[in-house]
Give the backbone structure.
Amino acid sequence: MKTLSSILEKPEMETRKDEPVYFEFQNPYLFASLLQGLRETVNPGVRGSVDLYPGDWYEERDCRLFAAVRYSGTLALAPLCIAAVTEDGELVSLCASPGNHAVVKDFLKEILFTSAFRYLQCLETDKLRALYSELGLRRVAGMPWDSDLKPEGWDSSRFGHPSFMVYASRYLPRFLDLDDSKQMFTSSDAFNRHLQNFDIVL
């Protein structure tokens, strides 16, 4: 059986214990496998909000694939964060092991710099709102919680009924036109028309 260290290239220099190393790799099937394992560490009440697709989904969309991996010396121990960016510039499949806020923030900064991703979709919890604000992302538009579309296993008693929200990075056309207000739509047609004004098609 292959270990994580045998799959990923070793860093050029030994790292301090538990120091994350950032990777971009080419194998979408490896990405899907690592994501599936990391997703299992997430609280079951929110796990369903992490989109996991087969490897060929990432391949067909020419995704760039990223991971932050915890190392000890030259030994890869475990992935801490994983995400992909589609050819359209959407950040997808963001997943992180619990308790790694600082690592997630640095990881997303690295991806933003490397890939210039344009936008992402999320269920806007308080933690995600704070994280994306710290990164300088702005709200584009949102829709209210829809119980019929809730992620599998979502624990409303703990995590509430967050809005569905689309956020944009500075690489989105007309980013400066966004004031980060919580502009909400109850009609999916009106919501999608608004997104198209910013060259976003979901």
